[in-house]
């Protein structure tokens, strides 16, 4: 009885689970899922074209940034999109705020993990990772919202 009520409420709010999946996984959302995690790597690449001090390790660095961005996007970003959508709060602004918060935590967590494998870094390095993660997560979430056609407010 309780399960039937839950399904009825779900169908009233979002339709059937298949309708929800078709609505959410439209081509624009899929394109946004593929393209938006590439944004930090693209921004770093454009920065290096302006300031050409980077040497041979640039491609490896950009590849690592893109890989970390995809892992963070699929591990933390998409669940956040589903959560915001479920609560009726899915806007590009809310998504960008969520992306900034989770991006800063994700990048700082990776920096902490890597520092345990080597020697601990000074505190300022973690602040830089926190800020970098905030920018990368915010950019990924913003461009996901813009490409995916999510309303701005």
If you had to describe this structure to a student in words, what would you say it looks like?
The protein is mainly alpha-helical and 153 residues long. It has one domain. Helix content is 80%, strand content 0%. It contains 7 helices and no strands. It has helices at 2-14, 17-24, 27-35, 39-50, 58-86, 92-117, 123-148. α4 runs antiparallel to α5 and α6 (92-117) runs antiparallel to α7 (123-148). The longest helix has 29 residues, at 58-86. It is globular and about 45 Å long. The termini are far apart.
Number of domains: 1
Major sheet: none
Rg (C-alpha, Å): 18 Å
Helix content: over 70%
Q: So how many helices?
A: 7
Order of helices and strands: HHHHHHH
> What distance lies between the first and last C-alpha atoms, to the nearest angstrom?
38 Å
Q: β content, as a range?
A: under 5%
The best one-word shape is globular
Mean pLDDT: 79
Low-pLDDT segments, ≥5 res = 1-11
Secondary structure category? mainly alpha
Would you report the number of β strands? 0
Helices, strands, pairings?
Blueprint: H1 2-14, H2 17-24, H3 27-35, H4 39-50, H5 58-86, H6 92-117, H7 123-148
Helix pairs in contact: 3-7, 4-5, 5-6, 6-7
Summed up, what is this model?
The protein is mostly helical and 153 residues long. Helix content is 80%, strand content 0%. Residues 1-11 have low confidence and may be disordered.
Record keyword descriptors for this entry:
single chain, 153 residues, mainly alpha, 0% strand, globular
């Amino acid at each position: 009885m309780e399960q039937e009520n839950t399904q009825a409420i779900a169908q009233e709010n979002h339709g059937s689970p298949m309708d929800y999946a078709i609505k959410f996984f439209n081509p624009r959302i899929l394109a946004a899922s593929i393209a938006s995690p590439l944004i930090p790597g693209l921004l770093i690449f454009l920065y290096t074209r302006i300031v050409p001090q980077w040497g041979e390790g640039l491609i490896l660095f950009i590849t690592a940034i893109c890989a970390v961005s995809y892992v963070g996007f699929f591990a933390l970003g998409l669940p956040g999109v589903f959560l915001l959508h479920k609560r009726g709060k899915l806007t590009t602004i809310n998504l960008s705020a969520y992306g900034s918060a989770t991006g800063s935590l994700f990048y700082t967590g990776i920096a902490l993990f890597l520092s345990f494998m080597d020697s601990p870094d000074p505190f300022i390095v973690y602040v830089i990772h926190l800020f970098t993660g905030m920018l990368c997560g915010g950019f990924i979430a913003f461009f996901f919202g813009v490409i995916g056609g999510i309303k701005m407010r």
